[in-house]
Amino acid sequence: MRMKNEKTKNKELLEEAVKQNSNKKQVEDKTFSIFKISELGYVVTGKTPSKDNPEDWGDLMPFVTPSDYKNYRKYAIGSERMLSQQGVTRLSSKVLPPKSVLVTCIGSDMGKVVMNNCEVITNQQINSIIPFNNIVDNNFLYYSLVNLYDTLRVYGGDGSAVPILNKSDFENIEIDIPPLPEQRAIAAVLSSLDDKIDLLHRQNKTLEAMAETLFRQWFIEPCKNGLPEGWEKGKLGDYVDCINGVSYKGSDLNTSDCALVTLKNFDPNGGFRLDGFKCYTGKYKEEQIVWNGDLAVAHTDITQDASIIGNPIYIIDDPKYKTLVISMDLVKVNPKHTWLSKEFLYLLMKTSDFKEHCLGLSNGSTVLHLSRRAVPSYAFKMPPRVVIEEFTKIVKGIFSKMNKNIVQIRNLEKLRDLLLPKLISGEIRVRYE
What we know:
Blueprint: H1 2-21, E1 33-36, H2 37-40, E2 41-45, E3 57-64, E4 75-76, E5 81-83, H3 85-90, E6 101-104, E7 113-116, E8 121-122, E9 126-131, H4 138-147, H5 149-156, H6 167-171, E10 174-177, H7 180-220, E11 232-235, E12 240-244, E13 258-261, E14 278-279, E15 289-290, E16 295-298, E17 300-301, E18 312-314, E19 323-326, E20 330-335, H8 342-349, H9 352-360, E21 362-363, E22 368-370, H10 374-377, E23 379-382, H11 385-425
Parallel strand pairs: 3-8, 4-7, 13-19
Antiparallel strand pairs: 1-10, 2-9, 3-5, 6-7, 6-9, 11-23, 12-20, 13-14, 15-19, 16-18, 16-20, 17-22, 21-22
Helix pairs in contact: 1-7, 1-11, 7-11
């Protein structure tokens, strides 16, 4: 029944998007023209400051690399590193104006596309296009290249250990381009969906911040002057059970209605990502199964800034999978008491104190691993049961709204991904003035 409801919802969203932005009126295919990327804009390959010029680094302009893409959806917002005025001056020929299109052309992230919303400089792994606006709309070009993801990766698959799509091959890739008014109409349909998705993400970020603020007011600030009456000192292991995830091999990752919850389900910006599941056909234990609303903590991290390890997630299921199982990189956290809500535990594990505790019990260089005793050994001040129950009544509505937003995000993303190739290819044509 849930699958049927989701299909109905997607159909309604599709009809609404087409109604608002198009009417599927057929236009003769001869209006499409073929252009090489080099004919659509000025292509700029980025550059990294020399190690002999450490003064090029500062806080003036974002320096975008493929590792920053994990923090982006459509727009490049900020970066891990920034350039100084000296660096910007030295690399002035590499400055990209807002609404350029940035395409990763080297490495495992090859083919990923973003637009910048401010002036940026990239490293040499990114080829960027400054569009000729008399020929192509910035947003249309962005969506066209998103649609070419598989093609871009094929171009870079030359058999080398590190896939590379060089600038000349990149410039010679051909794209079908309709008239500018139709480009803008197509981009309007897709952008309206992306804007709604972004709005829901930002709303969830605000809702989670509200819940964290309430948690501090209820459970952190009252302890500043000592242990309040009726509270106890305890360790998390006294109140929860920790269950290790399943160890798996690459041969276990096959098409299935069972999926692993993995590190990719952890959004670096906070929250749960629905595109991080991996289909799984291997063995697992009953206790390693997770359901909607269950809690898990990241026990492994490969990010440069240790942004994932020790983070909790609130599991959101996907109707296309009958079973979800936590992978070996996660630990499932189950409360031992029914009154100890998962909302309370989640917010407790979102505190900076818990994060610092986990970092202190992690080890490794390239890959960080969290000690098995990290979660159980975390010491905190335990409030009375009645306080937790009252708090839970207040925040349950916040978490319910966040979960509904995530489901809506999933529906909108499916709709966008359904429309994208049909609009770009001309299978669905839009009316334009």
